[in-house]
Amino acid sequence: MSIENTSRYSDNDLEEFKILILKKIEKAQHDLDLIKSAYMNDLNNGTEDTSPTFKAFDEGSQVMSKESNSQLAIRQEKFIRDLKNALNRIENKTYGVCRVTKKLINKNRLLLVPHATLSIEAKNMQ
Fold first, then answer.
1. 0.85 cut: is pTM over it?
2. Domain for residue 56, yes or no?
3. Which tens digit of pLDDT belongs to each residue from 76-123?
4. E-assigned strand segments in the chain
5. How many domains does the chain contain in total?
């Protein structure tokens, strides 16, 4: 059976992808919680009674740390949203179909990037 002629992945394949995606969502949510707790800890890291010079340096690094943690959190939230959208496509049985070529995305690609919506062929066309 050629992948090109198949309109969708089998229910067994979809179930395999669903399990993979659920595990990834769980890990991503855990990572997001860590990022958020690091962000909250950045608000007070015990420099109130240190020298004013150190405090100024620390406040500068604190702002940079907050910004990078904020960016990480935003990226992580987008990743989780993309994974949840992939779960919706599994439920609709449209998961793994390239939105440009309408062909099935290679299974190995989906195992590596389970939220992919473009085949390598379509990605290279961009």
1. no
2. yes
3. 999 999 999 999 999 999 999 999 999 999 999 999 999 999 999 999
4. none
5. 1
